[in-house]
Amino acid sequence: MIELEKAHAQLEELKLGAASAILDSRLQVATEKNLTYVGFLTDLLGAELEERHKRNVETKARLSKLPYRKTLEEFDFSFQPSIDEKLVREFATLAFVHQTTNLVFLGPPGVGKSHLAVALVMEAISQGLSAYFVTVTNLVNDLRKAYHDGRLDTRMRKYLHPKLLLIDEVGYLPLDPIGANLLFQLINARYERGSIILTSNKGVGEWDELFGDAVLATAVLDRLLHHAHILNIRGQSYRLKDKMKAGVYTAPAEPNAS
């Protein structure tokens, strides 16, 4: 018993708290399964590493400012047959991040753009990559304030540092000239240096209207889409599927998102 207490104390001193917490139960399992000393040690340290990984993911997810947690396993691919599941799971390997390629999800509200984007960000965090989430409205407002305060370069680094930046909800509101220019500056600065996942309810053909400037819209699209995969999602809103089934809601015709 004294030796067991000493082992607990040593594990705590080595900051192996998870291993200390499960030491007694893992000793019992090792006895029941007749594990070797190496087998027991591997099992104990494996549990410690797993717990540390979970804590690390939780911390990075919190710092990423994700509004919620989603996974690909939670996504109903059968409800959106326009989505190539195999391709999306290929994105989950994160090869696109290592290649500094962008992902652009286009489609009407409720089809799963943000769910897929957030799930890929969570996968990136799980694999140890830095990531950050921001809606385009909050992004532009933040950069505009920094611009007026004379600290744009410093604030811009916040969005340049992550390996993966998720810009959500592009297109719901038009951008004023300053906001459009600031978004261009960010996309230009990340060009071939860091990956962007962008979601929009507007087809790229409608971005002239969004930016209020055809030349600027073309410049943004040139950098955003040069190295990019575009997923154009067609379908009805997942959030309204039950109301549609009940006949209390009829979906409007889908806009052209090409």
From TrEMBL:
What InterPro entries is this protein classified in? AAA+_ATPase, ClpA/B, DNAC/IstB-like, IstB, IstB_ATP-bd, P-loop_NTPase
List each copy of the AAA+ ATPase domain by range: 99-231
The reply on keyword Nucleotide-binding is: yes
MF terms in GO: ATP binding
Keywords tagged on the record: ATP-binding, Nucleotide-binding
Domain of life where this protein originates: Bacteria
Entry-linked PANTHER family: ATP-BINDING PROTEIN RV3427C IN INSERTION SEQUENCE-RELATED, CHROMOSOMAL REPLICATION INITIATOR PROTEIN DNAA
Q: Please give the family membership noted in the entry.
A: Belongs to the IS21/IS1162 putative ATP-binding protein family.
Name of the protein:
IstB transposition helper protein
Q: Which organism is it from?
A: Alicyclobacillus sacchari
